[in-house]
Amino acid sequence: MWTIYRHSRGMLYVAGGTALHSEDLKPYQLYRCLYDNELSRSWIRPLEMFHENLSSGEPRFTPLARVRVVAPEDEREVLAMGFAAWGAGRTLEEFISSYQDDAHHLRGTAYSLELLDGSRVSALNTVRLSRHRYGLSRVVTEPQRRGQGYATMLLQAVMELLRADEKDIRFLLFSEIGSSFYERLGFQRLPDEGRAFLPFEPMVSGDAPASRLDPELLQRFFQDAGKNGRGALPRRR
Fold first, then answer.
1. Window from 5-14, 119-128, 208-217 with minimum mean pLDDT
2. In sequence order, which residues have a C-beta less than 8 Å from that of residue 206 and are 6 or more positions away?
3. pLDDT at position 56, please?
């Protein structure tokens, strides 16, 4: 579990645990930026300072939500979040059962965002497509919670957590809501040769030009998803 915090100046961070200083054994908080920072993405701060209040009485860091890897016992609830968007005339049981033989579901890792009261508000799935490439899919928010930035918060946190473990990682997805939402998160549309998936918009994270492999990876992703009758899986609702 990871906690997302808002700094008193407004920036968001995801906290990744604590560590002891080897010399004086004092605890430090480890955390990563959910925004571009020219100096570093990773930071540490004395644990007591991280959780202290400023002279104004305002917390230095205010917890907002938690990110979890979806446990097997929570899988049904998370899948049900996408039923309204992708149920396609099936019953809820049929919809959930359809994932039992879905390759992306079986080899992917699902994450959920929950508020401090424990209520789950958003979820997504990640699939490793190749070295340095992950696919993002099934980005969904509870209908009554949409428009409050939860999908954005979860996407930023999960991408940052994966970047912490693998340098030069990039993310691939299909958007069915146009490109502007994901462009704000650092994605770019694939060039024309990768745009054979309309009305879905193929996109890749980062400013560097897409590699020749990116359209091929998305083509495989798209075809595998289509075999299960759901079309392109990576969507946001």
1. 208-217
2. 170, 186, 188
3. 93
